[in-house]
Fold:
Amino acid sequence: MKKIVSVLAVAALSLGSVFAEVTLEYKGAGYIMDYEKTETKGVDNSDTTTTSLFDLAGYDGAKSHFILKAGNDFAGVVVDFDPNAQAKQFTLDEYYAWFNVGNLQVTTGKYTGRYAKRVNTDAGKWANHEFERYKLGVSGFRGYAALGVDVDNLTKIWTIDTDAFDGNASGTNQLASALAYTFRGLAQEDDALMIKASFADTSWGDLNEHNTLRTAPAFEVAYRNQIIDVNALFKSNAKQQIAFAGFLRYIGMENLNALVGFTYGKILKKGSNENGWEDSDYSEMGIDLRLRYAGLMDGALSLTTMHNISILNFEKGTNGDNKLTTMWNMVSGLYRLNEALNLQLTVHNEMALSCTKDGADKKPGLNLEFVPGVIIKASDNASITTGVIIDLNGISADDGQTTGMGIKIPFVLDVAL
Structure:
């Protein structure tokens, strides 16, 4: 590891003589305690209990980050290394370059391609699950299949099985290239209109019997002035699969940041899910509402709320339908006691308002999570985040559903130079 740090330091010094910004960041996360109890409701002797102490590689995937950035107004590169001492692995998480030619920006590499600001200023160093459980779009409740999960990320390709409904949907950022052109000063002196085309590496499908498309296309338009920030997008991760979304953010009031969004996904051709149902039909939608207000107690207290309703509808003809309607709510308060100490409390609830599997009604129950936390800052770029995560899962669930509880004490160490 010392050799790795030395190499990065030399690289930072070398690039710093040419480019304007170079940063290095280390992030490590683990559990002081991890207690979990689960059972299948209505099934005798199905409960299991596990407790782990001082798991230095348990929280948020046990990944540390060494991030090297170099850039100026004309070009830049970013390399994000993820060393994992426990697994003895060293991977490149993100690596990409960008450059500007006038108002045209070209980006290529493996990166996260989002535009919308997700109202997550107070997320800090918590893992996504403890603050922003779901990204904008269709929620992907408990990992269920969806075309519009994290829909604003144009470089992420999802592997889905619309029949499974078993929580195994997954998505990863892919090698991608994007062209974005920005018009400035159209209606107002300080406004901007951006038009983007992005292509992510995947086996999209055959265009005809002779031609195959090897990338997933996506297109986005965004407009911003001093009052609003709005974007609309269309993407297709695979043949016959489409998703489009629009997000509007109000930024015209000091200390207030509010967002509303709509997402729709569809498999265009019946039976194209390749699971053998010729009469099958799949569609989905998601509605987002988010708000943050930072003007309480002379700016010391900020409140954030996030809400999502998602509907997944898979009509399988004679095989019975899969339908799911979910709701997720989050409220978080962050109090800045002083420059070195912040106190935070975040509360989540999520539930399936209705759930049908193969034509039969299911009730997964209500999930609650309470996260009282503390952030200790040695400086603006060095902090320790810790607290208690209390999970209550499957409240009022039907027999045969998984229920349980968990109590966890994580820690996150983050240092940037």
About this structure: The helical segments are 2-16. The mean pLDDT is 84. Residues 2-16 form the longest helix (15 residues).
